[in-house]
Automatic annotation (TrEMBL), chains A, B, C, D:
Classification via InterPro entries: Aldolase_class_II_sugar_metab, Aldolase_II/adducin_N, Aldolase_II/adducin_N_sf
Catalytic reaction equation(s): L-ribulose 5-phosphate = D-xylulose 5-phosphate
NCBIfam families xref list: PRK08193.1 (NF006047), PRK12348.1 (NF009003)
Residue intervals of the Class II aldolase/adducin N-terminal domain: 7-197
SMART domains hit by this protein: Aldolase_II
Co-factor(s): Zn(2+)
Protein name listed in UniProt: L-ribulose-5-phosphate 4-epimerase
EC number: 5.1.3.4
Length: 231, 231, 231, 231
């Protein structure tokens, strides 16, 4: 079932240790088949060296296991909530990558300070508000998704143009049109977190790049007038 | 003698350089057999590339060498003191891992700032008080154990729920139900030290996560109602 | 066409991931043949593992493609502007190396704080002013070159003695008498950015080395009286 | 000539890139044969991959080349000055290792903040005063040695107990009873610089360890009453 997607999700999961985004099992990737509304996701707590395409779990959007011998990731409900609300995305990544977590624990967004971020994120990478006690106590993982969606809706952020978020006191989620692109965005987020952390220590001035420079870099890689690459 | 435990302790020692927790011989792992009250520990000052299961030393809880051709780790008395007082633990790790030492030298606990820590440590990772001159001068290694135990008793910390400590101006000790878990906790401690160091530079606000979020993450992985992983 | 230069530019491009100066495709190297005024440059957005000498693109100083099946790097116009104005240089490197970007995003030059920098850069490594809206909106990549040249001319900096720059809110460009030397200078710039960042956190005093020490180190490696190495 | 020492110096030089203490050719190791007063040292500016025991240069204490086809390291005069004045040392290392240089550029000693340093250095690792113009202009490398010796004599520091120094705005020199031990001390210096940098950012309090703890750790590894290791 969903063999091509299984392979994509498997490869994307295996890319996390390769890019040094995870320690132990602290991360997971999923992908969705928008025709059948089925999601392929990493099993919970399984070591990366034991992972194969066959160990991945297929769930529907209500979280029912459709195929698979393992429990799905404990973060599955968060993934599903994002797929339900961000209609264009095809893959999601969650990690505890260290620079991103440093911002998340400080409750700080990553400001759009330079062109590296602008090449992939059309503005700041937002941090969610702290979750309320009742959100943590009941349906925590689903509510983690809800607070992400609230962050984007309240601040009128387009998830297609800001493909990632920091969950307060927790860590990053990123997404993309497929699992591979979601991993790519996770690498970028970690890298800009590292660089902008250091910029913030070097300067107490306004750290933001100009809107015109942000437009230029984002739009030369994305949208109808893009001219980066071979297309 | 104690062949299975010897192999566990050997594997756990060899994991320290693999996880980049040690430089040269700056670390040691032990394991205890609670039936015989015998402890298997790394020999002192032996390079990791020369280590084999056979070079490990077996001592009793009074520190007498029961089997082995080498001197046991100079930190043996600290390990024994912890085994005598923390009755449930089966393995102990000591390293000079750099981020943990950075906090230890600053005399600072690692605050529970995010879910990465909460997944393994049910609160702050404490730093001991500075040792007194007479504690350093006489039975230094044993007293290093005593000051760890004092830290947990005085602050009513359960060593099963906070499986690690920073010895002031020295470095981390971690433990677990076996040597492998103790190493695992040593990796986690080092990682959260790195991340929380950076969070503390980013924010002068209250760095603590909420108690409810701490409960949620610790208890979804530990205890009767845990639901992380495949159990 | 230009087979020797093609190989040099290819080797220099492949050195970027080896020296960990780039993530994904975030960098490019070019080289110029001063006899024919033709420039060999990396194609845009092609992964390093897919790069061969044959995939490189040959352009003239007006940016016309003379040979090659791919689009040249989107930064080509910046390279050409530098070749036109810095007459002695034979190779150019652009990366988003993290420590250099940290200074660029903070809008800070890298001060000449020690002998490591002095061995290669005869003074501070300057940051450009922020680009004006109209410079970003029209001919952005060419104007990126212009603002670099302005920085050197206005401040009377000799590009042969300061073989690199930080473009504000963007990242580093370096150059040299050939592509290999340009990569070498890119490694040095990244390394001194890392070290001087930390020196600046350690000390609020004047961070500059003395002019006499700067002279000594630069001139013992460069110019008629150099005595470093085997010449 | 001096085949055993040649091999030791060769191995010690090759250990520098292995321990990530150097970039390019920014470092050198020498060793002395105290019977003949001959010194074996790395040739100047030769890449580590081209180094063999045969390429090393033998010089006498006046710097005359006794054997070798290459120029000796440009820092040779510094090494010789140290061998002449620190009578017990058998090997010297110079690097531009990044954390050590960060302190050197800031003009700061590395304070004895924890037991990692105390295991190898019996106190602070001192930084020299800035060199005077005339010291830089005439016999610079020899005077670099002189300012190191002045630092130890003026502050009554025993070079056998503090086997390393930071040359102001330059970088570290370390030494030991042989080239291997000198490299070992260079690794330790870099590691404690990294850790203590972070401790200093975490705490504005007194960062020093107690004298009694410093005594304990240094003396349990060094001197007549040492009990660390297998002796």
């Amino acid at each position: 079932m969903l063999e091509a997607l299984r392979n994509q999700v498997y490869e994307a999961n295996m890319a996390l240790p390769e890019y040094k985004l995870i320690t132990f099992t602290w991360g997971n990737v999923s992908g969705i088949d928008r025709d059948s509304n089925l999601v392929v996701i990493k099993p919970s707590g399984v070591a990366y060296e034991d992972l194969t395409p066959e160990t991945l779990v297929v769930v529907d959007l209500e979280g029912e296991i459709i195929e698979g011998d393992f429990n799905p990731s404990s973060d599955t409900a968060t993934h599903l909530e994002l797929y339900k609300n961000f209609k264009d995305i095809g893959g999601i990544v969650h990690t505890h990558s260290p620079w991103a977590v440093s911002f998340a624990q400080a409750g700080k967004s990553i400001p759009a300070a330079g062109t590296t971020q602008a090449d992939y994120f059309y503005g700041d990478i937002p941090v969610t508000r702290a979750m309320k006690n009742e959100e943590i106590e009941i349906d925590y993982e689903l509510k983690t998704g809800s607070v992400i969606i609230e962050t984007f809706q309240k601040n009128k952020i387009d998830p297609n143009r800001i493909p990632g978020v920091l969950v307060n006191d927790h860590g990053p989620f990123t997404w993309g049109k497929n699992p591979e692109e979601a991993v790519h965005n996770s690498v970028v987020l970690e890298q800009v977190a590292e660089m902008t952390y250091h910029s913030l220590q070097l300067s107490s001035d306004n750290i933001y790049m100009s809107q015109v420079l942000l437009d230029k870099h984002y739009l030369r890689k994305h949208g109808d007038n893009a001219y980066y690459g071979q297309n």
